[in-house]
Amino acid sequence: MVKSIKIGWYFYKPLMVWCTLASLACVYYLTSRQLNVPFAVICKLVSYAAILGVQYLNFNAAQTYFYFRNAGYNINVLYLSVFACDFIAFIILLSLSTIR
Q1: With 0-12 CB in 10 A as exposed, 13-18 as middle and 19+ as buried, what is 90?
Q2: 30-72 pLDDT, tens digit each
Q3: Other CB atoms closer than 10 Å to residue 14's CB: what's the count?
Q4: 53: which of 18, 21, 29, 83 is 20 to 30 A away, CA to CA?
Q5: Contact 35, 29 (CB under 8 A)
Q6: What DSSP letter does each residue of the chain carry, written as one string?
Q7: Which UniProt keywords are given for this protein, alphabetically ordered (predicted)?
């Protein structure tokens, strides 16, 4: 379990900047009353698609993910688990920002 968390963290580190910027932008526009909650969630999901697109276009998947594949992890499962954890953190941040 600890090894899986460590592998997930190493996989998430290059994506962390983009995920954090998308989360903060959604929360900022939500608190400034320019977005509503469902649209903020949709924007976050679109940002995941954009992150996947940038990763796919800018990096050679065979060389970038060699470490993770060599460790026996499926790249799609890693993306799914990392984005799921990030989405849960986003929902918590969203709920904290809407409490008044």
Answers
A1: buried
A2: 888 877 888 888 989 999 999 888 877 776 655 667 778 788 8
A3: 12
A4: 29
A5: yes
A6: -HHHHHHHHHHHHHHHHHHHHHHHHHHHHHHTTSS-HHHHHHHHHHHHHHHHHHHHHHS-HHHHTHHHHHTT--HHHHHHHHHHHHHHHHHHHHHHHH--
A7: Membrane, Transmembrane, Transmembrane helix
Dist. CA 56–CA 32, nearest whole Å? 33
Answer whether residue 2 shows pLDDT above 80. Answer: no
Query: Which pair of tokens denotes residue 47?
Result: 């940002």
* Domains held by the chain: number: 1
**Alpha carbon distance 75, 57 (integer Å):** 16
Print the domain residue range for 19: 2-98
